[in-house]
Design goal:
The protein is α+β, with helices and mostly antiparallel strands. Helix content is about 30%, strand content about 35%. The radius of gyration is 16 Å and the shape is globular.
């Protein structure tokens, strides 16, 4: 199996947001993340070089993948840009032109949710580049 090239390099700027939330928030979260994906796909190609959203169950022991599920859901968003300015431009565009921006921000702050954000992290190591 041939892997596609990794567009990330050690100079890439990253936005990573991890949201852990209670089950009652998942249906709306799924809808908002789909709306965000649709927005990103059509408007951000010139500033983003990579985009992914992963979703899965929270485990009772974060370091043991075989531990029981807690019933909560984790969403992990990763966005990569070439420069810090591209990352700033992306935030500006999303806030100004994505209709669900405020709704997603409010959703992330609901009771029963925790958010961890890495703003403008720089890739330290990256494998399988061309």
């Amino acid at each position: 199996m041939t892997l596609p090239p990794n567009p990330k390099t050690t100079s890439t700027h990253e936005l990573t947001i991890v949201v852990t939330t209670d089950q009652q928030n998942v249906a709306e979260g799924d809808s908002l993340w789909q709306s965000y994906y649709d927005f990103m796909r059509h408007t951000q190609r010139d500033v983003l070089i990579a985009f992914s959203l992963a979703k899965g169950p929270e485990r009772s022991n974060a370091l043991d993948p075989a531990s029981p599920e807690t019933g909560r859901t984790i969403y992990a968003l990763s966005e990569s840009c070439r420069t810090a300015n591209d990352l700033t431009e992306h935030w500006h565009r999303a806030a100004e032109s994505w209709p669900d921006f405020g709704t997603l921000m409010a959703w992330m702050q609901r009771p029963g949710s925790q958010v961890v954000t890495l703003h403008d992290g720089q890739v330290q190591n990256s494998l399988w580049q061309l």
